Amino acid sequence: xTTPATPSVLFVCVHNAGRSQxxxxxxxxxxxxxxEVRSAGSAPADTVNPAVVDAMKEVGIDISAEVPKILTTEAxxxxxxxxTMGCGDTCPVFPGKRYLDWQLDDPAGQGVDAxxxxxxxxxxxxxxLLTELGTE
Length: 136
Hints:
Layout: E1 8-13, H1 19-31, E2 36-41, H2 50-58, H3 73-77, E3 81-84, E4 98-101, H4 112-133
Parallel strand pairs: 1-2, 1-3, 3-4
Helix pairs in contact: 1-4, 2-4
């Protein structure tokens, strides 16, 4: 499978309020327009987790205006790489897509102190993904 000029990555978790929001923000921040970035949730929350917003502000990334989005079949179909983070069997699977499952602690209900190590692990995984995509 050839890599398109601008690869697209979809991050999926249940509520689209923590892990997938952080991953999307890091990828957008680090890759700029070299990667098309999406995030969604199988059962989106009403708002992004405030502790996640605060933890991301600490590293200079403002996600306070982000809103959790519902996972759609179209989002999966239009993505080259789909990275799941605890969404279980609710993620649709299509042939020809690259799927990764990142096992990460859920920041739901956690304070900023608990979110920081999750944030830092996501950043490292995003940096590795950029290398794999050849867009670092």
